[in-house]
Amino acid sequence: MKITLLGTGSPIPDPRRAGPSTLVRTDGACILVDCGRGVLLRLTAAGVLPPMLHAVLVTHLHSDHITDLNDVITTHWIMAPQGAPLRVYGPPRTQEVVNGIMASLAPDLQYRLDHHADLTWTPDVQVTEVAPGDTFTVGSATVTVGATDHRPVEPTVAFRVDDGGKSVVLGGDGVPCAGLDTLCAGADAYVQTVIRDDLVKLVPVQRLQDILDYHSTVEQSAETATRAGVSTLVLTHYVPSMQPGQEDEWRARAAAHFSGTIVLGDDLTTVDI
Ligand SMILES: [Zn+2]
Ligand SMILES: [Zn+2]
Asked: Any residues with CB less than 8 A from the CB of 188 and at least 6 apart, and which?
């Protein structure tokens, strides 16, 4: 199982980091988790084109995690064989978001349908809204849905992907909680979006201070990894953006609470488990 951090950024634009998005590949499944800013640039750099995706999983509907879902939908439609569906799994209201995206794409769809005689179908986006405890199959993988705590944003979910005897949990955004602990228990790898609360607290901007109460810190993600007994902790969605030369500092904060392998880095950082 191969895990690639496609985008390690956050809502704040960063020329070096795309928005939050992670790719999970096994021998029989290719799964995109969240669709942040620039996702298709990074997906292509990882050697994957939209028609190769078996599913898109959405952890929650914050804009930084879905801003380029429209690009995935449009490009999948243009590049996929006739009528191939794009399967999207996400929390309640995902269908509403996809409906809105489709409405925004109406002029484009009409232009292309009018122009290309061989294009006779519209995007077939098949949305499944999921809840904690649900399981479903994507390619050869089994996906399990778990609860996360990103309140006041709710509902939000995490996904565990099991395939070929390996497993990874994509934690999305949120603070540690029992649902996440349960989902992570015994997993090989755990991918968590994180903030550095020590650095955020230095910025006297209320809107930034507001994020402290609904994101895991680096230390908290390490504590979750230890409680769950995972082997590999993967950190992403760095707030504030991890600057060149800061990797050891971020890693040390996690290592103080977790003795396994810690993975972090730039976009396209990949780990094989
Ligand atoms: Zn969020
Ligand atoms: Zn986020």
From this structure: 1, 166, 167, 168, 230, 231, 232, 273
